[in-house]
Amino acid sequence: MASNAESYADTRHHMSSDLTEGNLVNVIWRMSWPLVVTMLSCATVDLIHVHIAGMLSASSQAAVGLVDQMMMIAVLIATAIGSGTTAVVARAIGAGDRNGAVLATSQALRVAAVVGALLSVGAFAAGKLLLPQYCSSPEVLTEAAAYLSVITWYLVPFAIVCSINAAIRGLGSTTLQLQVVLLMMVTDVVLNYGLVSFVWPTARTGLAGIAIVAIVSSTAGLLLALYKLNRSPLAGSISNLDKLCWYQTKRILRIGLPCALLELTRVTSTFVLFFILSHCRQPQEAVASWALGMRLEAFLFLPLDALALGAAAIVVQNLGAMRIDRAWSASWTIAGLGLGLMVVASALMFSLAEPIARLGSSDANVITYTTDYLRLNAVCEPFLALEVILGAILQSMGDSRVPMSIGILSNWIVRLPVAALLGLSAGLGPAGVWLAMTVSNILAGLLMLTRFCSNDTWTMLSSSRAWTNHPAASIARTGLVGHRRAQRRLSLCP
Questions:
Q1: Are residues 430 and 298 part of one domain?
Q2: Alpha-carbon distances of 79 from 15, 82, 261, rounded to whole Å
Q3: Which of 42, 114, 117, 262 suits a disulfide with 404, CB 3.0-4.6 Å?
C-alpha cells in the first residue's frame, strides 16, 4: 500500500506544476502574471487592427469596428467553453491520473473543432443579418461584408488554440499560453504593417487582407500550441482523437456551456444598454461617454481576469488532490488579492475620474458623463472582484449553473429594467444608467459570495477530523486512483 502511495505522489509530481504544494502567493503569482501579459497582448492586437483599417479609409475603420464587435461574442464563447477543459484536466492532474487528463484533452480538442466551425458559420450568418441594423452606409456595409466573409474562418484555429491553452492551464502552467499569444501577436503585427505598408496591395484586397493575416497568425499559434502539447505531460492527446468518451465530453460541456451562456448574457445586455443610452437626452454624448468609460475600465479587469483564470486551475487541481483545505485557502487568498487590488484601483479611479475623462474627450458633456461613470462604477469594483473570481472558482468546481443564473439575474432582470426606469422614465439620463450598473454589480457580488460560502464542497471543512476520515482522503493517501470506485469518487472518466 505504501508503494502505491509513493507511486501516486511521484506521478503527480511529474505531471503538475506543484499547484498543490508550496507557498500559495508564489503559486498565484506564477499562474497570473503570464495571463496579464497575454490579455494585454490580445488588447494590443485589437487596437492594431483598428489602426491598420484607419490607414485604408474611415469606412474601413468603421467596418472593422462593427464586425469585430460581433466577432467578440464568438471569441468569448470559445474562451468560456475552455473553462470546462481547464476544470476537467486540472482535477485529473490533481488526482494523479495522467490517462484521464490526456483523454479529457483529446475530447476537448474534438469539442473545440466543432465549436469553432459552428461559431464561424453562426458569426457569418449573424453578421449578414445584424450589420444592416447597425449601419446604413452602403460603403461601410460593403467593406464589412467582405471583411466578415473571411475573418470568421479565424474562429476555427482560434477555438482549438483556446482549448489547448485551457488544458495547459489545468496542467498548472500559463507560460505556454503566453508564448502562443505572443507568436500570434508578433505575426499579426509584422504581417499587417509590413504587407500593408510595403508589399501587399491592400488597397485592392481591402479589409480581406487584414482578415487573412489574422487567420495566418492564429494558424501559426495553433501549430506552436500543438507542438508544445506533444512535448507536455498531455502528450498523446492528439493520437487519442479517435477515441470517443461521452462522459468526459459531457463534463467539459456541463461546465463550459453555462460559462459561454453567461458571457453571451453579459455581451448581449450591452446592446440593450446602447439602445437605452441612445434614447437619453444628448444621446451622442451619452453613448460616447459609455464607450470611453468602458475602455478605461477595461484595463482594471485585466489583472482581475488573470487572477480568475489562475484561481480556477489552482483550486480544482487541489480538489483533485483531495487537498480541500488548501483549495479553500487558495480561494480566499486569490479573492483577497483581487479585492485589495480593486479597492486601490477604485480609490484611484474615483479620485482621478475627471482628469482621466478629460484625457479622453474635450466635450464638456462627455467629460461630465464619463466622470459620473467612473465614480459610480468605482463604488462597485470590489464587488465585481468577488463576482469574477469566486464565480470562476465555482464554475471550475462544476457549479456553473448558479453563476450563470446570477449573471442573468443581475444583467437582464435587474440592470436593464432599472436602467430604463432611472435613465428614461425618471429622467436621470446616463447617470441613471450608471447607477443601475452599480446596483446590479453589487448584487451579483453579494450573491456570488453567498453561493460560494454555501457550496457543498466546503462542508467537509467543518472539522479536520471529518475530512481526515473521509473515504476520498483515504483514496488520495493510498494512491488507489486506478480502482473503479476510486475513479467515481474522484469524478474521473470511467
A1: yes
A2: 24, 5, 12
A3: 262
pLDDT-wise least confident of 62-71, 200-209, 284-293, 409-418: 200-209
477 lies in some domain: no
Of 323, 421, 303, whose CA–CA distance to 93 is shortest? 323
> Using CA atoms, how far apart are residues 314 and 393, in angstroms rounded to an integer?
9
End-to-end CA separation in angstroms for the chain: 22
Residue pointed to by grid coordinates 463550459: 256
Looking at the structure of the chain, the number of domains it has is 2
Residue ranges in 135-174 assigned as alpha helix (H):
138-151, 155-171
Q: Which domain holds residue 320?
A: 258-462
Contacts of 8 (CB under 8 A, 6+ apart): 96, 476, 478, 479, 481
Can you give the pLDDT at residue 204?
A: 54
Q: What is the pTM of this model?
A: 0.84
Q: Exposed, middle or buried by CB within 10 Å (0-12, 13-18, 19+), for 113?
A: middle
Cell of 423: 435613465
Residue 104 burial class via C-beta count within 10 angstroms: exposed 0-12, middle 13-18, buried 19 and up: buried
How is residue 411 annotated by DSSP? Answer: I
20-49 b/e with 16+ CB inside 10 Å = b? beeebeebbebbbbbbbbbbebeeebeebb
Question: In whole angstroms, how far apart are CA 404 and each of 209, 249, 263, 408?
Answer: 38, 20, 9, 6
* Cα–Cα distance measured from residue 212 to residue 322, given in angstroms and rounded to the nearest whole number: 47
What residues have CB less than 8 Å from 186, skipping those under 6 apart? none
Q: Are 171 and 262 contained in the same domain?
A: no
Those residues with Cβ within 8 angstroms of residue 56's Cβ, 6 or more apart along the chain or in another chain: 196, 202, 203, 206, 207
Question: Rounded mean pLDDT of 224-229?
Answer: 94
* pLDDT tens string 312-356: 999 999 988 888 889 999 999 999 999 999 999 999 999 999 998
**Gap between the Cα atoms of 124 and 137, Å rounded:** 19
Give 418's pLDDT tier (boundaries 50, 70, 90).
very high
Look at residue 199 in the predicted model and tell me its pLDDT: 54
* Helix axis angle, 324-351 to 24-56, nearest 10°: 50
Average per-residue pLDDT for the chain: 82
Q: Which residue has the higher pLDDT, 311 or 50?
A: 311
pLDDT tens per residue, range 169-223: 999 888 888 999 999 999 988 887 776 655 554 445 557 778 888 899 999 999 9
Residue 43 belongs to a domain: yes
Same domain membership, residue 264 and residue 233:
no
456 CB-contact burial (10 Å; exposed 0-12 / middle 13-18 / buried 19+): exposed
Sign of the CA dihedral with 219 first, then 221, 50, and 261 last: positive
